[in-house]
Amino acid sequence: MAREKDNIALSDEHNSRGIELADRGWLDEAIREFKRAIDLDPDSAHAHDNLATVYAEKKLYREALAEYLTALKLEPDSATAHYNLACFLSTHGPEFAVSAYRQAIDLDPEYPDAHLNLGLTYADHGRVEEAVTELKRAIDLDPADAFPRHELAALLMDEGDYRNAITHLKEVVRLEPDNFEAHLDLGICYAQKGFYAEAERAYGRARELNAEDLLLHYNLAALYALWGKKPEALAALKTSLELDRAKVTGWLATDPMFDALKGDPEYESLL
């Protein structure tokens, strides 16, 4: 028993020294101290937690996660253990995911899903150029899969690159003729580029697939407003208002595509 208490006391000393070293930025030395603390007292949850913190700072995310989970296993009722794990995941989760996808790609460079999901992770965090590169690589590896093409097109739309988005969306609807969202997105891109007749055809195909979609009718109204077809614009707008008046009026408040109709008595009466 005395021996066990001695080990715990010595473990605490190494743990305290590790904290001091970590605070000074001497991370490798801190890791060694925390490992000595754990060797002396494997059930020291705070030593595992401190080791995890330093691993995370060194971008050793897999090792950090293992230590956070060990600390939580040792003290499952500890609010601090749950909090520290949550902080790690919220702060480093995306970096951890990128690192894991990169490792998968290093092991298998022709793994299309790894490139796809890496691209989506980059896109979610505003790393557009890297996202485009990875999504294009996923397309090259599996050209018959429409999903990465559609995701790339959506990213290009967000960036205002409607011309290149059109190229990818045309291929998506070729691969998946019944893909409602692809036809809708294609119509939006055509409308943004001023290809109104092409947009109308794309929306027409989307309507064959889902005639009750709110976004479809709203974008149809916007198309006709831009095109100068007031009766058609008002008819589509009326339908969209009937589907969800609150949402549509919110969109209209800041949508410049309806500027040509603002002030028109029939338009104003709908609102």
| Beta strand count | 0
By CATH's scheme, which homologous superfamily of the largest domain applies?
Answer: Tetratricopeptide repeat domain
* Principal-axes shape call: elongated
Mean pLDDT: 94
Main structural class: mainly alpha
Q: What helical percentage do the residues reach? A: over 70%
Distance between the termini: 81 Å
What fold name goes in the CATH topology slot of the largest domain? Answer: Serine Threonine Protein Phosphatase 5, Tetratricopeptide repeat
Which percent band covers the strand fraction?
under 5%
> What's the CATH architecture of the largest domain?
Alpha Horseshoe
Topology pattern, helix = H, strand = E: HHHHHHHHHHHHHHH
Radius of gyration over alpha carbons?
A: 28 Å
CATH class identity of the largest domain: Mainly Alpha
Major sheet? none
User: Low-confidence spans: pLDDT under 50, at least 5 residues?
Assistant: none
| Total DSSP helices | 15
Summed up, the domain count is 3
